[in-house]
Amino acid sequence: MTRHAILVARHIFPEVSQRLAQHFEVEANNAPIEWGRDELIRRLQGKVGAFISSTEPIDATLLAACPDLRVLSSMSVGYNNVDVAACTARGVVFTNAPDVLTETTADFGFALMMATARRIAESEHFLRAGKWQRWAYDMFVGADVHGATLGILGMGRIGQAIARRGALGFGMPVIYHNRSRLAPELEAPLGARWVAKDELLRQADHLVIVVPYSASSHHAIGAAELALMKSSATLTNIARGGVVDDAALARALADRRIAAAGLDVFEGEPEVHPALLQVPNVVLTPHIASATIATRMKMAMLATDNLIAVLQGRPPLTPVNPQVLKPA
Fold first, then answer.
1. How far is Cα of residue 167 from the mean position of the Cα atoms in its chain?
2. How confident is the model at residue 328 (pLDDT cuts 50, 70, 90)?
């Protein structure tokens, strides 16, 4: 029996390709590079499925050029790189990898917020440059985390996990803004309080952004929103590049309109706005919030399970467009 042909579009754990090869004819990108659009289309010819990540751009034009595709399985939870409506229109199942990265990403988000508040990166650069000559009472004084007001924009799984860390571990009052308010039984253990977005910005000592990216959340934090924040406040973005206007944020940091920022995601990444590289009061990391071996393996294996399930005629574990699935 002829086996399905699939594409693994990104360099990934060898265990993934080996497992997929037990079921399919696999063409894999074994180099740590991203294929350009034309190369991706060329490689997808004759493929019925593909293992992708958050960087492969999937739109109607690509789908039209790859008529054999039946399933796209992403190892990422976010999917602003995928036109889901176009997938649905062509009957292509699209799956992502939620849940398995929640706690690891929350760990990192909280760590990045703490590093930002306590000026860890800024002081390390100072030390490495050989500038530390003496102690001073005001040397790299930052902001307390314990007892400070934690503001969360986007109160999904990751937002709630960050809230737990703040409320239960650091005694932080938690306020949040979400499109819809959480159920009381979810709010109560966190002592979390829903507030309007403007109130969130005005009250938060430490603002953490975990809202999904969409057209409606593009530049949800721009110059006007930054102007509402306390001059002593910090901003941490582990959501997606584009939720924050990076140029406006760089200006706010340079002018000390807010105290500091911690960023794991950027507009146009891997490019970083040049102005962000010039300000000292920002901690920058290269989109690594889910980067532990255990979590990345879980993400990859969930995407693998989804791909195998669809091509074997079974429902995937985490479909984004389940309306495409054919009834059993």
1. 22
2. low
Q: Residues 112, 285: contact at Cβ < 8 Å?
A: yes
Q: What is the pLDDT of residues 86-140, one digit of tens each?
A: 999 999 999 999 999 999 999 999 999 999 999 999 999 999 999 999 999 999 9
**Has this prediction a pTM greater than 0.90?**
yes
Residues identified as active-site: 240, 269, 287
Using N-to-C axis directions, what is the helix angle for 157-164 and 102-117, rounded to 10°?
50
Three state DSSP letters for the chain: CCCCEEEECCCCCHHHHHHHHCCCEEEECCCCCCCCHHHHHHHHCCCCEEEECCCCCECHHHHHHCCCCCEEEECCCCCCCECHHHHHHCCCEEECCCCCCHHHHHHHHHHHHHHHHCCHHHHHHHHHCCCCCCCCCCCCCCCCCCCCCEEEECCCHHHHHHHHHHHHHHCCCEEEECCCCCCHHHHHHHCEEECCHHHHHHHCCEEEECCCCCHHHCCCECHHHHHHCCCCCEEEECCCCCCECHHHHHHHHHCCCCCEEEECCCCCCCCCCHHHHCCCCEEECCCCCCCCHHHHHHHHHHHHHHHHHHHCCCCCCCECCHHHCCCC
pLDDT per residue as tens digits for the range 136-167: 999 999 999 999 999 999 999 999 999 999 99
Domains of the chain with CATH codes = 5-99+293-324 (3.40.50.720), 102-284 (3.40.50.720)
